[in-house]
Amino acid sequence: MKISIGRKMVNFFKKYSDLIFSMFTIFSVSFFKIVSPDFWWHIDYGRYFLQNGFPKFDPFSFALPGKPYFQSFLSDIILYIIYLISGAIGIFLLKILVLFLIFYIIRKKLNLHYLVFPLILLLISIRIFAKPEIFSLFFFTFSYYIFTKLSGKKRFIYLFFTTLVWNQLHQGVLLLLFFPLSILISELIFEKKFDKNRIFELIIIIIALLLNPSSFRNIEQYLNSFINKDFTVMIGEWLPLFSNVRPLPTFVKILFLFFGMIFLFQIIFHFDKKDRTIILPLFLGIAVLFARRFIPFFGISLIFVIDRFLKNATKIKRYGLIIMLIILYTINIFSPYYRLNVDPGIGISKFYDGKIGSLFYELNLKGNIFNDYSLGGFLSYKLKRKVFIYGINLNKEKLFDYIDVAQGNKIQEIFKKYNIEIVILRSFSQYPGGKNIKKYLVENEWAYIGERMRYNIWIKNK
Questions:
Q1: Cβ atoms of 76 and 115 closer than 8 Å
Q2: Mutual angle of helices 303-312 and 133-149, in 10-degree steps
């Protein structure tokens, strides 16, 4: 009896080894970095959309508010409802679900090697936050199924409705345009033919894109980031991969170079003319150099390249990769800061509680708030009041005013300009001008309320 049970267990693990290993990697990256600072203003917009419809003006900033944001209105509503009903657990399960669907498409729908998903997950996990972008990761993967497994009218129908739904969720839908374009270029170069279906596919995508009023805003944002280099969008995720401003960890850069080398190796030694999407990783690899937000999409674009790499690799190399992956994902579980430096209060699974909100109510704090950039969305959502700055709608004048204060310049002038009565910042040591900020507050007899969730609160004495 014991032998039969043992054999059943061995057979079970053999049969589902790819699923078990992939779920291990999914749980490894899902336990940590559940949210980013953007999560809070996204669900704040979700709440606003449900209660008030689309805003005409920025509803969450009192300081030179920018245009209202509604490019990802459906994602914001979904995230808000999930968090409202189930809190952190629901957001955690959403991440697992999306990653599992990506695994399912790669392994079952595209029939690729079982190590493809764990490998590209290393790049996906860099930006696997609970924010609208997570839906783009799924639809981008699903697009490979549309363009490699479907044809004729079925492809056109799937393409239209995929674009239509994706367009309501996240502006990453614009990446869908690269599929027919890259296939068209591949066919012209390697097959010496022109297929009019690629033009039809582009037309279908464009028509579906125009069914969302925010499409023009999406295009404007991308053009600003790549052509005009508008400083208000060149923050965080829009910074170049090797930028010295808010630099990424060395490990992330090594990962990008590692996968880039695999891509070049396959192109040189194992080039497959039948892979009509081969141009896409090249486009996205270049895009990553200019904007790091494309890192996970670059990883997904390599699925066929990595599949060929694994099938051409010896067993010893594959076993070596498995050992390396187990080590990396295990390290991630026990050391979640290893890959990405994220503020522990926002980026990890320990969600902010109501302490800071209760403090405001207890002390009856009123007045305009000058807040740390990363805290704006949380304060707006929890306190249900306008803040100075948060992660979107960055008016250029306001952004430069924020930077001036962070550098310790024009503090009195800017606080007077916006009638600031409450200051909520991180430790002063984390700002270039932190000493000057503290000196100003102390010398002008601002009252120090205390520290809540690693943020310091000061109020102006009247």
A1: no
A2: 70
Closest CA to 379 of 457, 446, 450, 460: 457
Q: What is the dihedral of CA 14, 18, 19, 25, to 10 degrees?
A: 130
Per-residue pLDDT tens over the stretch 182-229:
999 988 888 888 889 999 999 999 999 888 766 666 666 656 655 555
**pTM, 2 dp:** 0.88
Other C-beta atoms closer than 10 Å to the C-beta of 263 total: 20
Domain residue ranges in the chain:
2-30+71-312
**Closest C-alpha among 20, 124, 25 to residue 330:** 25
Question: Buried (b) or exposed (e) across 58-85, using 16+ Cβ within 10 A?
Answer: bbbbebbbbebbbbbbbbbbbbbebbee
Instruction: Describe the strand order of the beta sheet including 447-452 as a list of residue ranges.
Output: 368-371, 420-425, 455-459, 447-452
- Retrieve residue 111's tokens: 């029939």
Burial of 383 (0-12, 13-18, 19+ CB in 10 A): middle
Question: How much is the CA Rg of the chain, to the nearest whole Å?
Answer: 24
pLDDT at 212: 72
Find out whether 288 and 256 touch, Cβ atoms under 8 Å. yes
Whether the predicted pLDDT of 155 surpasses 80:
yes
Tokens of 315: 């067993």
From CA 425, how far away is CA 385, in angstroms rounded? 17
Q: Is 286 exposed, middle or buried (0-12, 13-18, 19+ CB in 10 A)?
A: exposed
User: H helices within 364-451, ranges in order?
Assistant: 376-383, 396-406, 411-417, 434-443
pLDDT at 303 over 90: yes
The pLDDT value recorded for residue 340 is 37
Between 210-224, 369-383, 385-399, the lowest mean confidence (pLDDT) is in: 210-224
Q: What secondary structure does DSSP assign to 135-188, as a single string? A: HHHHHHHHHHHHHHH--HHHHHHHHHHHHHHHHHH-GGGGGGGHHHHHHHHHII
Closest CA to 392 of 204, 131, 74, 17: 131
Helix (H, G, I), strand (E, B) or coil at 425: strand
- Rounded to 10 deg, the angle between the 116-124 and 303-312 helix axes is 140
Strand partners, 425: 456
DSSP 8-state class, residue 374: G
- Taking the C-alpha atoms of residue 62 and residue 42, their distance in angstroms, rounded to an integer, is 18
Nearest to 140 by CA among 107, 95, 179: 179
Residue 169 and residue 208 in contact, taking contact as beta carbons nearer than 8 Å: no
Residue type, position 357, single letter:
G
- Note the pLDDT of residue 241: 83
